[in-house]
Task: inverse folding
């Protein structure tokens, strides 16, 4: 299945992306399944089942090509729901490694991948990263209910006021 249609980001209007089709899988549009794409600035990040495995891909709309991300994709981690900072430097995603979920952050500049929720004893999902890449929000099931947690990119929870329940 190819991404053909409307992708909407944080903008108030849908945008139609006109990208080339590449049967070799080097473009945004390919015969592979693209799951849950996210757009930020000139970048589209998505999970795709290309090359007989599920990986995260980053596509640059300006150059119309996928960007190599050494050290990101691992056969030991099942990735889902990626998000990208506006400058394309940081990619955050939910991953499951050895039966334990985590929120992972990849820095394209340093080529480092790390679990920012390693010390959190909870199931986590659906991360989102701020445009500047400094803040990560995600869902966590701490006490039998899903709550939104906000961390900095170093993996430290931010002390935000919570509304009364």
Result:
């Amino acid at each position: 299945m190819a991404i053909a249609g409307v992708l909407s980001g944080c903008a108030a209007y849908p945008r139609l992306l006109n990208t080339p089709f590449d049967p070799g899988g080097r473009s945004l549009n390919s015969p592979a399944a693209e799951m849950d794409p996210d757009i930020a600035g000139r970048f589209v990040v998505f999970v795709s089942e290309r090359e007989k495995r599920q990986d995260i891909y980053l596509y640059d709309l300006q150059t119309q090509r996928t960007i190599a991300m050494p050290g990101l994709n691992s056969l030991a981690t099942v990735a889902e729901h990626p998000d990208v900072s506006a400058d394309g430097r940081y990619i955050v995603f939910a991953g499951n490694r050895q039966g334990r979920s985590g929120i992972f952050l990849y820095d394209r500049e340093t080529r480092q991948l790390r679990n920012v929720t390693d010390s959190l004893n909870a199931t986590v999902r659906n991360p989102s990263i701020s445009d500047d890449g400094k803040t990560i929000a995600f869902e966590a099931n701490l006490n039998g209910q899903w709550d939104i947690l906000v961390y900095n990119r170093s993996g430290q929870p931010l002390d935000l006021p919570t509304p009364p329940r």
Q: What stands out?
A: The first strand starts at residue 6 and ends at 7. The chain has no helices and 13 strands. The mean pLDDT is 81.
